[in-house]
Amino acid sequence: MSPEFAILRKKAARQNNKEYETFYNRSMKFARKAKQGSVLAVVTLAATLLPAKDFVKPAAQPAKTYPAHDDHANEKVAIAADPYDTTEKAKIFSVKFGEHGFLPVFFVVTNEDNQPISIANMQVTLTTANRDKLTPASSEDIYRRLTNPRTNTNAPLPFPIPQKKVKGTISQKERDEVESSQFAAKAVEPRATQSGFFFFDVQGIEAPLAGAHLYVTGVDDAKGTELMYFEIVMAK
C-alpha cells in the first residue's frame, strides 16, 4: 500500500467517525426531547382526568364545645350552631353558597344520655334582630337559586364575598354536595353526636347574625316526651 493511499484511508475513517458522532448526538437529543414531551403529555392528561375534590363534612366535636350552643344538662342533650360566614371557612364548599345569598350553619346535636333521642320532628328557626323568622332552605330551594340567580346584584350580602352571576344548570357534583352536606339525622344514639349543615336564605338581609337567635323545638326523649326548646345566641 502506497503512503498516499494510507493517508487518504485514515482521512476517510476520521470523516466517517465524525459523521457518525454527529448523527448519534442528534439522535440522542431528539430522543430526549421526545421522551420529555411524552412525559409532559402524560402529566397534563392525568391532571385533566383527575376528579374534582369531593365535599368532606367537618368532623363534629361535642356540641357544648362550640361557642354558640345551648346545653340542657338535666336531659344531657346539647345543640350547637357554627356559622360558616367567612371566606376561609366557606372554602370547604365548591358551591359558592354565600354568593347566592345562603348562610351555611353547621348544626351539631350531642346526646350524652344512655337512651336515644328522636329529632324526626325537630324544627329549626333562625330569628334575626329584626324578627325575621328563617327556616332552613330545602334542596329544591337551593337548586332554583343556583340555576336562576336573582337579577338584583345590588342586594347586600351577609358577609364579604364577591357576588357573581351564575347561569346554566347545576352539575351532578353540586347536587351531591348539597345533598351530602345537609343535616339529615332523625335520631341521635346514646353518647353520640350527629351533625350537618342547614342553609338559610339571607339574601337582602344585612348582618343576619347580629342579635340573632336559633330556636330548636321537637326534640323528644326515648319516651316520646318533648324536651324544652333550645335557644342559641348566634352572636357568640
What does this structure look like?
This protein has helices at residues 3-49, 139-147, 172-181, and strands at residues 69-72, 77-83, 102-111, 117-118, 123-127, 133-134, 187-188, 192-201, 213-217, 230-233. It is an alpha+beta fold and 236 residues long. It folds into two domains: 1-50; 63-233, Immunoglobulin-like (Sandwich), CATH 2.60.40. It has a four-stranded antiparallel sheet with strand order 1-2-3-8, with no helix packed on it. A four-stranded antiparallel sheet has the order 6-5-9-10, with no helix packed on it. Strands 4-7 form a two-stranded antiparallel sheet.
Task: Summarize this structure as a short list of keywords or feature phrases.
Immunoglobulin-like; 10 strands; 2 domains; four-stranded antiparallel β-sheet; single chain; alpha+beta; elongated; 3 helices
Number of helices: 3
Q: Calculate the mean pLDDT score and round it.
A: 82
* Biggest sheet overview: 4 strands, antiparallel
> Spatial order of the strands in the main sheet?
1-2-3-8
Structural class comes to alpha+beta
Instruction: Estimate the global geometry from the Cα principal axes.
Output: elongated
